[in-house]
């Protein structure tokens, strides 16, 4: 492993390491209002690539992007009882606008079910209008008392999808499609983060939902991070807002709904699932810079060779940056590209030119290979695919080795010191095991069937609880 | 011109026509909080294409995307005197968060100069850090008393760019680059809307700027719409926030800054620059759907032929929709695609299949041509380019015919009934002509040199004032 003295080491102090990476790789900074966040250009360029990849998948399952207002009348929140109970303590409230006190306070959206249902109730008339699927990329605000960059911030960026269906079964199936074909597929195949998909216990559901499904990933400190959720809303919001459709046989029914979201929190997941003591390791498919050509010295044609190489790499479809800042020491620049986690670094100086070669450095393994300069542009695309595959493989091996099936609460506690434990959900409930786990800071992340599938309810005999310490 | 009875006609009632198009083409709706807006899927898909095209141009001139918080401490706004005077009356104020009254009220960003300079003052240390260029796509809130969808809304979506430069000259040049190479280029070559670029009179400047440049377009009712602005901020914000850099010779200087923005207001411009009595006419480069294959009846292989044709068009790089909703009347569907302004419509039914042809309809000219089915996918890409060029040409001819050079205030008033007038800026100032114009609802849109270039100041002898009624 490369080692950088600019970061705390993961083993010594993981939270400090995280904070250091976020700062030194120039990903984000704290905003002036407590809990808010500035996403810096490099961090944002990773987020943009996440958005592009996820947005394409969301469009594939038929959801159209749109935009609903930031401001929601406070009374809207009150219409769904569980929803207001869940969100009222977290909202930011606008009381003055245009120099005057407002007649009705306005809530800054913590999520958009209420305002969107106001429109769904107009748009949905007939069974022919169903299913109806929309998505929006936007900012939301939930007051955060213990903020942490990307992981828990008062304002965060996310996408929230909202759908209406004619039947319970169709809504149910779509919530699973989002969880599996959109979210898990993106996380595994783009972020190279393996995820467990499962069902949340009732008390962990989204306020107003009848079922919440989640993707849970293991971070390198063995803790769980919830990476995305997909909710079945049943008819709760439809009833609160009158979202009804006329059936083929002339009846009038409330629609069945889903909502689902992923956020800038995934940036935290990316950092903590792949980073090492030298900084970030960004999987190539989500890397804004996949290869950096580092010019050691601009002598004897090395500058021109570096430019030509960057051009060739770009022509080969590789997102390439040329670092020709020869006024900055080579060592400092190398450390900086390691911090930023660029998958492949190509070092090139006058001596390399003389030898007709470059040094190709893989960020994930720190291996260095002398490579003929003429072969680099042909080699790198395949190498990037290899890095992508191996990062996923490493994350999966690591997680699977730390995910242990246990048969007692004390064993679950012991296993959770290092990673995840799977234990009978029935056992936990019969022995008040959750209270015992909570004393050790361990919670139920999700419920799964022994074969990894989603349980239809909490009451199936062989359901397993995945338990862990969590972010 | 095609004519649709679902809209008011432009000649009868232009504002009503605008409102009808926004509603019937399903572009936007009013939000529940007065002045806010819901952007519907079709409207948003046009906005997304605008974003993509503009974002690419912004990146080309070296600005990196990032994200700054929605919430700004109220005290930040107060640091630049003109800025707070300009924006204080329009802001929304958060006084409660997390269930408590806040110690310091928070302003929902009306624009981000103040919060961004807080970070610029940390990021900029040396001349080596300059120029520094960032951009963000986000929502902003400015309380609006007379809202109008897209044109004036309390919350709107926009991009705002912010830069720091070492010298006045560099900042000045960059503000012009944005105006000309980014904004005007996008508006002319993508939106097919010709724009006049010019300098705002001092009293129309952005609060805190030393110069505001603008793109002004003529709408089909002869009124002007400000489509985008680029500001020189001088050192005003740098001084208020201490954004300084050490020079090459060891001195310490405040940076020179620019900021620049375009918003969902451009959607209003698109509607009013190209629409006709049948609805929108979307220029192909910004059209989310460039061609629609309308299946008349699914008989005698017409359904399969329509699918194959849509496939061929997509393979030819045409953004294509297949409308196979044969349970809805053909006439109603044709009217709907005209409302939505899809540039090319291809009608195909069993009779066409028998004749080996389709009917190709241009939305802009309403011309219908029988075309051999095998040639459609080859024909359409070129046809779309032609439509793009002709929409721009038509808009330019129309505007130029209604932009008249005049030599007196009464003549300016007369010309402004139909379009724009250009009159000596010196004359206006010496005769208090602006007051006379204002009585007729006419304002100075921008100042230009006789050759169309940007004046260096307001005081040049031959500067012309472009005057018009305006949105």
Question: What would you note in describing this structure?
Answer:
2 copies of one chain form a homodimer. By secondary structure, chain A is of the alpha+beta class. The first copy, chain A, has helices at 14-24, 41-60, 74-77, 81-87, 113-123, 168-189, 236-241, 265-274, 302-315, 330-340, 350-355, 376-401, 409-416, 425-430, 433-438, and strands at residues 28-30, 37-39, 64-65, 71-73, 92-97, 100-108, 132-141, 155-165, 196-199, 211-218, 224-234, 244-246, 252-254, 256-263, 291-295, 320-323, 344-348, 357-362, 368-372, 403-405, 420-424, 443-448, 464-468. The longest helix of chain A is centred in the last third of the chain and has 26 residues, at 376-401. Chain A is globular. The first copy, chain A, starts with 13 loop residues before the first helix and ends with a strand.
Query: Which class best fits the helix and strand makeup of chain A?
Result: alpha+beta
Average pLDDT reading of chain A = 96
- Name the poorly predicted regions of chain A: none
Number of helices of chain A: 15
Largest interface: A-B, 54 and 54 residues
Oligomeric state of the chains in view: homodimer
- For the biggest β-sheet of chain A, the strand order reads 3-7-8-14-11-10-9
Radius of gyration of chain A: 25 Å
Number of strands of chain A: 23
Whole-Å distance between the termini of chain A? 26 Å
The coarse silhouette of chain A is globular
Q: How would you characterize the largest beta sheet of chain A?
A: 7 strands, mixed
The helix content of chain A is 25-40%
Strand content of chain A: 25-35%
């Amino acid at each position: 492993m490369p080692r950088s003295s600019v970061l705390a080491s993961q083993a010594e102090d993981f939270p400090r390491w995280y904070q250091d990476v976020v700062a030194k790789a120039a990903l984000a900074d704290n905003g002036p209002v407590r809990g808010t966040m500035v996403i810096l250009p490099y961090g944002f360029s990773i987020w943009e690539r996440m958005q592009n990849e996820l947005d394409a998948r969301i469009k594939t399952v038929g959801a159209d992007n749109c935009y609903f207002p930031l401001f929601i009348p406070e009374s809207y929140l009150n219409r769904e009882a569980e929803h207001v109970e869940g969100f009222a303590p977290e909202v930011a409230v606008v009381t003055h606008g245009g120099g005057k006190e407002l007649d009705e306070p306005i809530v800054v959206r913590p999520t958009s079910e209420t305002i969107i249902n106001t429109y769904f109730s107009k748009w949905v008339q007939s069974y022919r209008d169903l299913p109806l699927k929309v998505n929006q990329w936007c900012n939301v605000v939930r007051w955060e008392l213990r903020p942490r960059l990307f992981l828990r911030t008062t304002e965060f960026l996310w996408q929230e999808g909202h759908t209406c269906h004619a039947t319970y079964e169709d809504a149910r199936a779509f919530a699973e499609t989002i969880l599996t074909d959109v979210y898990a597929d993106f996380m595994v195949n783009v972020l190279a983060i393996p995820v467990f998909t499962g069902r949340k216990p009732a008390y962990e559901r989204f306020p107003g939902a009848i079922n919440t499904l989640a993707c849970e990933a293991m971070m390198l400190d063995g803790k769980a991070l919830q990476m995305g959720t997909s909710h079945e809303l049943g008819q709760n919001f439809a009833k609160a807002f009158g979202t009804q459709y006329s059936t083929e046989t002339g009846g009038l029914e409330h629609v069945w709904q889903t909502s689902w979201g992923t956020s800038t929190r995934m940036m935290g997941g990316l950092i903590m699932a792949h980073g090492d003591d030298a900084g970030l390791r960004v999987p190539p498919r989500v890397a804004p810079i996949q290869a950096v050509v580092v010019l050691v010295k601009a002598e004897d044609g090395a500058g021109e060779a570096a430019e030509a190489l960057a051009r060739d790499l770009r022509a080969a479809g590789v997102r390439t940056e040329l670092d020709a800042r020869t006024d900055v020491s080579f060592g400092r620049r190398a450390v900086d590209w390691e911090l930023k986690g660029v998958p492949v670094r190509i070092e090139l100086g006058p001596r390399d030119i003389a030898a007709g070669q470059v040094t190709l450095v893989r960020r994930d393994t720190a291996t260095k290979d002398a490579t003929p300069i003429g072969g680099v542009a042909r080699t790198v695309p395949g190498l990037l695919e290899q890095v992508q595959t191996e990062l996923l493989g490493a994350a999966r091996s690591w997680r699977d080795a730390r995910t242990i099936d246990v048969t007692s609460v004390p064993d679950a506690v012991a296993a959770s010191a290092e990673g995840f434990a799977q234990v009978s959900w029935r056992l936990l409930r019969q022995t008040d095991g959750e209270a015992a786990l909570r004393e050790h800071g361990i919670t139920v992340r999700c419920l799964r069937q022994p074969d990894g599938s989603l349980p239809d309810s909490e009451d199936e005999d062989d359901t397993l609880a995945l338990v862990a310490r969590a972010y």
